[in-house]
Structure of B box-type domain-containing protein:
Amino acid sequence: SNDHTVEAELWCMNCEQSYCSKCFEQVHELPALKKKNHESIPIHQKPLEPALCDEHHRQKLELWCNNCQKLVCNRCVILKHRNSSLHEIVETDTAALHKAQLLESLCKNIQSSLNECEKPATDNTEESIQEVTRIFESIHRMITNREKELVREIREIQIKTKKLVDQRTIKMVYIQELLNKYCKELNDMTSKNDPTALLKVHERLTEDLTKLMERIKGVKVPIQTRYQIKGIDELEEKISNIVQTVRAIAHHDGISCH
């Protein structure tokens, strides 16, 4: 378009130029062009420019070497990749389809791992507190102070557990955002039907997704929280003579209460 402030909307198949609607009509009103019935298409349907080889002038990159993992032209194949036992040459469409399938499979595996991480952990904190209360009511006032101490310790563990869960949630949200970004990038490229573009970035995208999978492995799934009361084996008729040690042990990802 001559008016550089207006975004191009059309592509002329004959002129091989982009125009806004107004400029397209003005240019093709010229007698020399009007008779030729130039065809226009939406700008987003503009034919893709072929990728060219850096080593061989004006040679299109129409092939892919599976061994070298790179795009090659016909001259590359003849000069550097002719040994079929060392170089497996396939068309870009075939190679791009295979790479897209690998990347999509990796995305699905990561999503599946994320879904596993998001499963809520079982927390029986309240049930354990009720059990502690019931036991201490049965052995009277002498160990009421110990009861309160156990409840406090369990609450502290609950707070620590919540912090761990919150940290894990933040990490998972961040990983999900990265995965969505990479999946969108992959979908955008596959929707453009441009195999060369996908093959150029597949290595980087595969590396990014692999790193993402490793990050997921570092997100620990909380182990079920369990509390136990130990040291009460029997109750004598005279509670005043009981000398027992009551301990609450909470097993949760290395956090313990002594």
User: Anything to note?
Assistant: DSSP finds seven helices and eight strands in the chain.
